[in-house]
Amino acid sequence: MSGKIRISVDAMGGDAGAQTVIPGAAIVLERCPDIEFLLFGDKAVIEPLLENHPRLKECSRVFHSDVAIEMDEKPSQALRKGRGKSSMWQAIAAVKAGDADVAVSAGNTGALMAMSKFCLRTMSDIERPAIAAIWPTMRGESIVLDVGATVGADSQQLIDFAILGGAMARTIQGIEKPTVGLLNIGVEEVKGVEEVRNAGRMLRDLSPPNLQYVGFVEGDDIGKGTVDVVVTEGFAGNIALKTAEGTAKQLAGYLRAAMSRTIFAKIGYLFAKGAFDRLRAKMDPRKMNGGVFLGLNGIVIKSHGGTDGEGFASAVELAYDMAKNELIKKISEDIGDYHRGKITTADEGLEG
Amino acid sequence: MSGKIRISVDAMGGDAGAQTVIPGAAIVLERCPDIEFLLFGDKAVIEPLLENHPRLKECSRVFHSDVAIEMDEKPSQALRKGRGKSSMWQAIAAVKAGDADVAVSAGNTGALMAMSKFCLRTMSDIERPAIAAIWPTMRGESIVLDVGATVGADSQQLIDFAILGGAMARTIQGIEKPTVGLLNIGVEEVKGVEEVRNAGRMLRDLSPPNLQYVGFVEGDDIGKGTVDVVVTEGFAGNIALKTAEGTAKQLAGYLRAAMSRTIFAKIGYLFAKGAFDRLRAKMDPRKMNGGVFLGLNGIVIKSHGGTDGEGFASAVELAYDMAKNELIKKISEDIGDYHRGKITTADEGLEG
To answer: Residue B267's pLDDT is what?
Structure first.
């Protein structure tokens, strides 16, 4: 892709809205200067903030919108109120219109997904979109999906998720044939729900060309980094993600308490401060901020609503990577290859 | 309860069998001298091991069994092969016969649950047993169930789990009216699967007398200790448990790596060694070893198969606490109170 990466931003999304979004966008620009921003929201709020970031101002166009979606609005409400005219909708619509390569919002997840589906539509050959999270592991990073777009998934939808997640791994991690595992409660073929068992059999039989299906994985395999892509339906995926976040916070709390309990511990902390700082940086949840909506005719990135500028910058940087490395193109290729493969396999079946 | 607590043990269960079980039982005896052990397994293996633990030998009776269930046997296989004659079955049967107050095994979970159900039967008014885990939280400990007895649960089964978990919290934590939350992917009433939403409504309407239903909780609420009892079906519960275990290991790995990277960090580690030791003890998974099978006419405790003597001792100690504090009696009371309450509520409904 030549030229600048065009990122449309819902400047009113998130707990602090433009107060977080504008400084966040400014941070990214330092790392990735080849961005052009389309900022959607209240001009009266955005423009004064841009005055503090002259470089961002130079690379941005501001599009006024009167309507902002609240963090607690129901998806159906948000659609009624915000379709066409909200900053969230307009940021997504810019992708649909081809004016932006990718959209980012820190607004409410349900509303953002509803609008994204309504505006961008699901890709042909994909039944349902998924939200993919990038999960830090002991071996690097893995992709976990779906972490909450939809509750439940049938076998075919799980296979779609495998292909979508595989394409994302190829895009951001540059892995040629990512390893894929189905999240289950045991690694034996007989374990788990029927949908997962069937999806496992189908993935083995069809063996999609651009990924390497390795079988079932369990909850502790995610953090180990056993596979590049972990596939599950949205209920279990969301619970896994939040449980891991909770556990990480809990252990950080234990560590802080342990390091401040005695004078020796405090002295030890001072000596090891560099190490603790690195550890803190490694565990910083802001670095991994950004859920990727996959399976739509366009890419939308969801940032945590409660993050700060640094965290929002991570989400925008993720958006940048996805657009720069042509995620949508890779997904289309992978879906095409998979379906051609399916047809061939069926033919062989008939002949044999 | 007067007299000794009688604990039946499947001495052949677990990766290392009696090599772990016998030293483990000996450790518990130091902490809880009022135990009588019934040890089931190969006498030729058990008796020589007992020679190293004269005190344990004195408090134990050994019952010979030729058949040991393998760790990878399917439940149906295990039942066919081991019903009546395996050490696992006999340990459970001792509870049924009233010879033991509680059974402990480190054997394979599926086989142990299948045999426990077959031998002890599900309690009347309870549809399905659950496996409850004790989860360390920032506020102490919570109970999470089901962590893998069955995949899926309908609303009534989730309510059963709430009552079973509540009774367990009353037993081991001495809380009079434990708080209970339903694990979901959002705290709003409209979120999640139908079974969970219905169970939430029913728990609000029926308000079982011995627990306090607080609503939906999310994955990160488990580690926070938001509620005393977290209720979910076995698929999501197992994934949450294993994901948390995986995250804890991952962070411990990061911490170890950080503390050995530079000379300053190493010096810091030496100063803070006491703090790190306490932290390690706090995070020691062996301390929280033991899944409790709830909803059967008798208590069975499942120890991790790969644990060591110290870990097995934790599982036995948990069994001891359950028996000593009369878990089964409390469960029966709570189920009775709940069903009387349901009938009263229905009557009121008719009259009003």
So the answer is: 87
Contacts of B14 (CB under 8 A, 6+ apart): B20, B21, B71, B105, B106, B107, B303, B304, B305, B306, B307, B312
pLDDT over 90 (residue A2): no
Contact between B180 and B231 (Cβ < 8 Å): yes
Which chain B residue has the Cα nearest residue A72? B188
The answer to whether residues B297 and B277 touch, using CB atoms and an 8 Å cutoff, is no
Output the CA torsion sign for A61, A65, A71, A74. negative
* Domains, chain B, ordered by start: 1-126+295-352 (3.40.50.10950), 127-258 (3.40.718.10)
pLDDT digits (tens, 9 = 90+) for B294-315: 999 999 999 999 999 999 999 9
CB environment A107-133: b (16+ within 10 A), e (fewer): bbbbbbbbbbbebbeebeebebbbbbb
List the beta bridge partners of residue A321.
Answer: none
The CA distance from A11 to A25, in Å, is 10
Contact A246 B183 (CB under 8 A): no
Contact list in A for residue B246 (CB cut-off 8 A) is 219-224, 244
Cβ-defined contact of A232 to B239 (cutoff 8 Å): yes
* Size of the A and B interface in Cβ pairs below 8 Å: 199
| Percent of residues, chain A, with pLDDT higher than 90 | 72
Q: A278, B258: Cβ pair inside 8 Å? A: yes
How does pLDDT run across B274-287, given as a tens digit for each residue? 888 887 777 777 77
* Residues sharing a CB contact under 8 Å with residue B297, sequence separation 6 or more, in sequence order: B96, B120, B121, B122, B123, B328
Query: Which two structure tokens, joined as six digits, stand for A63?
Result: 């599009």
Confidence of residue A257 (pLDDT cuts 50, 70, 90): confident
In residues, how long is chain A? 352
A205 to A196, A200, A213, A342: CA distances (angstroms): 14, 9, 10, 9
At residue B57, does pLDDT exceed 70?
Answer: yes
Q: Is the pLDDT of residue A347 over 70?
A: no
Contact A243 B220 (CB under 8 A): yes
Strand pairing class (B5-10; A35-41): unpaired
Angle at A145 between CA A115 and CA B232, to 5 degrees: 100
Residues of A in contact with B226 (CB under 8 A): none
Provide, as residue numbers in chain A, all residues whose Cβ is less than 8 Å from the Cβ of B221: 246
Query: Cα separation of B197 and B203, whole Å?
Result: 10
Mean pLDDT, range A40-68, rounded to an integer: 96
> In chain A, whose CA is at the least distance from the CA of B221?
A246
Q: Residue B343's CB: how many other CB atoms inside 10 A?
A: 10
* Window 260-299 of B, Cβ < 8 Å to A: 261-262, 264-265, 267-276, 278-279, 282-283
Contacting A residues, span 132-161, partner chain B, CB-CB under 8 Å = 137-138, 148, 151-152
- Asked if residues A206 and B164 have their Cβ atoms less than 8 Å apart, the reply is no
Confidence band for B351, pLDDT divided at 50, 70 and 90? very low
Q: Which of B239, B261, B304 to mutate to test the interface with A (most CBs of A within 10 A)?
A: B239
ipTM of the complex as predicted? 0.89
